[in-house]
Automatic annotation (TrEMBL):
Main location: cytoplasm
The protein's role, per its UniProt record: Involved in both the arginine and lysine biosynthetic pathways.
Record gene name: argD
The organism of origin for this protein: Duffyella gerundensis
Membrane-spanning residues: none
Location relative to the cell: Cytoplasm
Family: Belongs to the class-III pyridoxal-phosphate-dependent aminotransferase family. ArgD subfamily.
Protein name in UniProt: Acetylornithine/succinyldiaminopimelate aminotransferase
Cited NCBIfam families: arg_catab_astC, argD, PRK01278.1, PRK05093.1, PRK12381.1
Pfam families in alphabetical order: Aminotran_3 (PF00202)
């Protein structure tokens, strides 16, 4: 018999959790579709999607059904044994993309860690152990392991943790000449988000993405695309690189892959994968049956014209509501991003107010995100209803009004 649950509140967080987060003042306890309820029963429209994770909203019936049935069948075996859900999910990811081989992990950072290790390993096996330079971009975000914060382009996330992995060079995003100036035959990979997420919701330009592909080919370097945030339908295509007609050598995806269940994947070609052998890399949980079963159902639903074509329709509804707000309050320099990865950059006179707006939004009953100090970020469910968008945007307007009134 389960014991009665102890009472916990937001205050408990400050007493028991490592202080690396500053969560909102309310504690969500229940979700359905794009609505969340807190401990006091107050409801919120969710435009934050668990940071671009709950792409099918909260407690989608098909995901719940899969979780229940797999939960009563087989949870975990480790990679000493393979399992049916992982083999099915890998096969479907391969059928849907450029890839021929899949490695499963549990988070975006782990998928990227695997990608960066693979890029270096491949170069050392096929070319030379000195071909280890990784080119990455200012404001990029690739996760929180030591390697991934080092490839990420925000020193505040990597400083203070001792010596960093070497031979990583950062240049400005969307600046092809800057890449040309540092790339050479010792470069093993260029690592890039097709749409920088945490860095402010900034899409790569067409010329930049195409140029990176050409530079990689010229220098026998691998193009590694971090689609942890931009992938799984977020941009309106299954993966954002499809908008550019540019094919990566390695791609990582996580966030929405499991619709809220932790799972990530690294995708690559047979040729690149063939340099790896048993024992070279691995993880205990990666590709576990429970995670892969849920992700398979999420992929089945997301990778349909119905869901993917609905993304831009929903984007337009968000953008026109944001434009109406802008017309009234002169708020934004730009509304950018692709699909339902939406960034609204605040005008200089509102600089630094993104966090205040986020807090006011929670009070008004809508959950949003920021990206840096000056960008409002919305990454809602890909199947959010028009009514939920309208209600959430009305609450958001109230929040903006209350911040500007102060
Ligand atoms: C969130 C994110 C990561 C890190 O994913 P975790 O699951 O938090 O490790 C990596 N890259 C990008 C682009 C992300 O948005």
């Amino acid at each position: 018999m389960a014991q009665e649950k102890m009472a916990v509140t937001r205050q408990t967080f400050d007493e028991v959790i490592l202080p690396v987060y500053a969560p909102a003042q309310f504690v969500p306890v229940k979700g359905k579709g794009s609505r969340i309820w807190d401990q006091q029963g107050k409801d919120y429209i969710d435009f934050s999607g668990g940071i671009a994770v709950t792409a099918l909203g909260h407690c989608h019936p098909a995901l719940v059904e899969t979780l229940k049935s797999q939960g009563e069948t087989l949870w975990h075996t480790s990679n000493v044994f393979t399992n049916e859900p992982a083999l099915r999910l890998a096969s479907k990811l391969i059928a849907a993309t450029f890839a021929e081989r899949v490695f499963f992990a549990n988070s975006g950072a782990e998928a990227n860690e695997a990608a960066f290790k693979l890029a270096r390993y491949y170069a050392s096996k096929r070319h030379s152990p000195y071909k280890s330079k990784i080119i990455a971009f200012h404001n990029a975000f690739h996760g929180r392991t030591l390697f991934t914060v080092s490839v990420g382009g925000q020193p505040k996330y990597s400083d203070g943790f001792g010596p960093k992995p070497a031979d990583i060079v950062h240049v400005p995003f969307n600046d092809l000449d800057a890449v040309k100036a540092v790339i050479d035959d010792h470069t093993c990979a260029i690592v890039v988000e097709p749409i920088q997420g945490e860095g402010g919701v900034v899409p790569a330009t067409q010329a930049f993405m195409q140029g990176l592909r050409e530079l990689c080919d010229r220098h026998q370097a691998l193009l590694v695309l971090d689609e942890v945030q931009s992938g799984m339908g977020r941009s309106g295509k299954l993966f954002a690189h499809e908008h550019y007609g540019v094919t990566p050598d390695i791609l990582t995806t996580a966030k929405a892959l499991g619709g809220g269940f932790p799972v990530s994947a690294m995708l690559t070609s047979n040729e690149i994968a063939s340099t790896m052998a048993p024992g070279v890399h691995g993880t205990t949980y990666g590709g576990n049956p429970l995670a892969c079963a849920v992700a398979e159902t999420a992929l089945d639903i997301i990778n349909t014209p119905e869901v993917l074509n609905g993304v831009d329709v929903r984007r337009e509804r968000f953008v026109s509501a944001l434009q109406a707000l802008d017309a009234r309050y002169d708020l934004f320099t730009e509304i950018r991003g692709k699909g339902l990865l939406i960034g609204a950059a605040l005008k200089p006179q509102h600089a630094g107010k993104a966090r205040d707006i986020l807090q006011a939004a929670a009070e008004a009953g809508v959950m949003i995100l920021t990206a840096g100090t000056d960008v409002i970020r919305l990454v809602p469910s890909l199947i959010i209803t028009p009514e939920e968008i309208d209600e959430g945007m009305a609450r958001f307007a109230q929040a903006v009004e209350s911040v500007l009134a102060h």
